[in-house]
Amino acid sequence: MTDLLTHALAGYVFATVAVWVTPLSRRHVPFAIAGAVLPDMAKVSLLVGSVRSTVWGVEVGWLALQTLGAALLASGVVALAVTRSERRPVFASLVGGTVVHITLDYFVVRAGGVSPPYLYPFTWAQLPSAGLYLSSDMWPAAVALAVAAVVWALDRRYRPTI
Known about the structure:
Elements: H1 4-21, H2 29-37, H3 44-48, E1 52-55, E2 58-61, H4 68-80, H5 87-105, H6 139-158
Helix pairs in contact: 1-2, 1-5, 1-6, 2-5, 4-5
């Protein structure tokens, strides 16, 4: 799993380019960044000391937060908290950021050669890992930073004046 910075930068790049080619507004970019870091909420297991915990009498598997289903549910809850006219773009931004996150995680080298079932609840399939980089590699963050800097510069230069 790439680091949190890489996911946040990738979410920024995705959302900024989406603003250029879709009806999304720049105010939706932070939602895409939040969606891109949303699956890493599963890292709460590092704080609680276990992958499984009991919350209010219910056993919880924290790794379930890294699935598309959990991201869709969380995105839906957040979308309900905004005004009616903003719900669809906020939901789309959050889900788009999550898809970017999961896509980046498919490129991580896995010991067994397959990724976790990120697409649950749609399928339990554990797709093959692309095996492009280790989760401890620094170069994905450097690439993400360079691409984000280029996108930021292009966005600032060619932003229409309002």
